[in-house]
Amino acid sequence: MIAGKAFSSRLLVGTGKYKDMDETQRAIEASGAQIVTVAIRRTNIGQNKDEPNLLDVIPPEKYTILPNTAGCYTAEDAVRTCRLARELLDGHDLVKLEVLGDSKTLYPDVPATLQAAELLIKDGFKVMVYTSDDPIICKRLEDMGCVAVMPLAAPIGSGLGIQNKYNILTIVEQAKVPIIVDAGVGTASDAAIAMELGCDGVLMNTAIAEARDPVRMARAMRKAIEAGRDARLAGRMPRRRFASASSPVEGLPF
Fold first, then answer.
1. Is 35 helix (H, G, I), strand (E, B) or coil?
2. β-bridge mates for residue 66, sequence order
3. Which residues pair with 108 in a beta bridge?
4. How far apart are the C-alpha atoms of 190 and 161, rounded to whole Å?
5. Cβ(233)–Cβ(225) below 8 Å
6. Catalytic residue at 176?
7. CA dist., res. 116 & res. 73, Å (int)
């Protein structure tokens, strides 16, 4: 449940870095994702009339379009970008906020993120927010009114997987809104681990788009999200230092 709307897929995907529109469409379809995020500053969704429109391959009647503020380095730019998206998408108010700190790490500028989130929430936006894996900041963003909090697993596009499982676990345990890992996933096992930790979903782009076969990787990610969620609900066995026989011998007469 995000902002009062139910989704059956826990995989959210982006639209960047694919070789063409056809590959973008096929990979997104294979992922089974219902929420597709779009970088307003980098992607044409109608603002450039003479260029191909991404909405032709991800129609809003089929997908929930999630405009994002990728490429914004100030709170002011992020707020302006969200307002542009709302205008282009006929009043659409669900957005993904990210305010970056520098171009090398693409780590979030946390003070600017807090500032932008406050302004957007006051302006009526439903804010899903990209942030650091700091449990204190994540809780503060939730308390401000963000509808989902999206801590990074590792730097954007790095493919390093979850680097601090205990931070993510703490964030999940204290949250009352969806926690969606955003950034750093590299392969299917990373996505499964995020779900096993109790995350409500995973957002990814590069892990699919830069795979040798993006469509096949999108299918793999779909299955990994489902498997990780099932494993979380099933409850894993306890870890032990030593062996425990699958067939107990207690009580046998030899």
1. strand
2. 37
3. 100
4. 5
5. no
6. no
7. 11
Q: Catalytic: which of 96, 104, 122, 165?
A: 96
Q: How far is CA 150 from CA 26, 89, 201, 234, 242, in A?
A: 26, 23, 9, 24, 37
Q: Give residue-wise pLDDT tens across range 30-43.
A: 999 999 999 988 88
Query: Which of 155, 153, 151, 158 minimizes the C-alpha distance to 210?
Result: 158
Asked if residues 217 and 207 have their Cβ atoms less than 8 Å apart, the reply is yes
**CB-CB contact of 189 with 224 (8 Å):** yes
- Which tokens sit at 242? 């030593």
Q: Distance between CA 26 and CA 189 in Å, rounded?
A: 22
Dihedral of CA atoms 145, 151, 157, 161 in degrees, nearest 10, equals -160
With tokens 């392969």, the residue in question is 187
pLDDT tens track for 71-88: 999 999 999 999 999 998
Q: 52 or 235: which carries more pLDDT confidence?
A: 235
Of the candidates 166, 158, 217, the one whose C-alpha atom is nearest the C-alpha of residue 193 is: 166
| Distance separating alpha carbons of residues 11 and 18, to the nearest angstrom | 18
